[in-house]
Amino acid sequence: MYEHEHYRMNDFQAAVALHRQGRLDEAEHHYRAALVAFPNEPDVLYGLGHICSQTGRADEAAYRFEQVLAARPGHAGALIGLAEALEASGRQQAAIGRLEQFIEAEPHNAAVHFVYGRLLKQVGRFDESREALIRAVALNPGNPTFHYMLAESARFTANDTRLIALEALTRDEQHFSGRQRAELHFALFKAYDELERCDEAFAHLAEGNRIYRALVPYEENGVNAFFRGLKETYTAKAMTPFAGAGHPSEVPIFVVGMPRSGTTLVEQILASHPDVHGAGELQYVRDLIDGDFAGPDYPAGLAELGREGLRRFGGYYAVRLAALAPGAKRIVDKLPANFRHLGLLHLAMPRARLIHVVRDACDTCFSCYTQLFASGLNYAYDLGELGRYYRAAEALMSHWRTVLPGESLLQIRYERLIADFETEARRLVAFCGLDWNEACLRFYETRRAVRTKSEFQVRRPIYTSSIGRWRRYEHWLGPLLQALD
Predict the structure, then answer these.
(1) What's the whole-model pTM score?
(2) Which SMART domains does the entry mention (predicted)?
(3) What residue segments make up the domains of the chain, in order of their start?
(4) Rounded to the nearest 5°, which phi and psi values hold at 230?
């Protein structure tokens, strides 16, 4: 081996070590250096693919995993990485097709069946999803994550074998990671809740939340300071000089609110309209803010950002959004947390529609507390923190309603939508500047991938069973109720 190849192999070893430590930028530098000497080395490409996935670059991640599979067609890890990258970019059907090809040739890989089942659930193929997850559990019965996903696939009944398996796993839970232990307890909450054994259900729910809260960072004072900075910067007086400065696109619709407030249902109604594309929970706004497109001191620095900066922000966002569905008149970005940025979004795209979905505070917060989210919602695992976050978000939305023009911001109340569905659906569609279409009433028939925790609910007609659900557990919710009071 030549001397430079020895050097580049050291780059690869350094990349692996740094990757394990979570130092992603440094790891990527060394992976790319190693790639100079070994451009077709599967291990280098595989590591780089994971770095790209972890940093939100799904297209390059897919490309790198494809390179690995070209060299090693049976590489299950690269196939899973490819499927997850395709999922992240909204290409679930392509991911499902690749997994089906692999399963036909290699039917005994539990992890591939698991990812296959998860993707089938997103596209509404629930029976097939459940079968795939059953297969994953059968192939690897000791994996709590597989059991957790299977637990979410259908309601529990008395003597359910899934419950028996979950209870058996908890007897050895000290051997599992923190995330896996939390998954076990969230799954057991679902089982006991559906069996109406509320004491046991809440005990597991509280334990699952306690475990996961210890794993994730959450700085409440920092969140409050950020919200305060938004209200101090984006005042009516400060925003007036920038009216109309942004990009003129009418394509974006932002659906925002607390998680579990009904945002996915609102998106599904709109996405059922033939002129609307539902893009799901996009990270584009966050990417632009992280890239300093809103200024290095955001939320401060509106004056320094100026009219040109606002138009640049809106232009970058609008072009990237339109590329998802070039023929659509409107495209929905349903990232609930974008409620924080409505002042910026209105100035950057003054013709965008902003829709805020509101649900009963106790129902919203309790529903959040019952979910183990993929990432990011770190305020949701402690009842007191959750209640205080809800009130802080509510206060920020009150501020936006004061400073934003009424024609740009529509509030949809979940309970009113459920009670008078057609009236509210028509109001929603009209606000978006679209002609009414009857398909919006049959939103549950719309075939599209849904990646949120509401993937089952939006495939069903309107129902009322989730209203007031928190009351079954009111006895245990003291810290939440106190925070909300």
Answers:
(1) 0.89
(2) TPR
(3) 151-215, 220-484
(4) -60, -45
